[in-house]
Amino acid sequence: MSRDSSEKKSLQAWVRDIRDREMPIFGHTVQQVVNVAEDQEAPASRLARVILQDASMTARVLKVANSPYYNPRRQRISTVSRAVVILGFDTVRAMCLTITLVDSFVQGEPREQLIRELARAIHAAVQARTVALERGDDSPEEVFVATLLYHLGDLAFWCFGGNHAQRLAELRKDPAYSDEEAEQEVLGFRLQQLTVGLAAEWKLNELLTNTLKDPRRAGSRGRNVTLSYRLAVAAEKGWNDPEVRDLQKQLGELMDQAPEQALELLHGNAKEAARIAHYYGANTAARTIPVPGSWQPDEEQESEGEDAAGTAAPEPDGMLQLRVLRELAMLLESDKADFNLVMELVLEGMHRGVGLDRTLFALLTPDRRGLRGKYGVGRGNLADRFQFVADPAEKNVLFQVLEGQEPAWVGTDRLSEVPASVQAVVGETPFLLGPILVNQRPIGLFYADRTPSRRPLDEEDFEGFKHFVQQANLAITHLSGRGK
Question: CATH code at 428?
Answer without folding.
Answer: 3.30.450.40
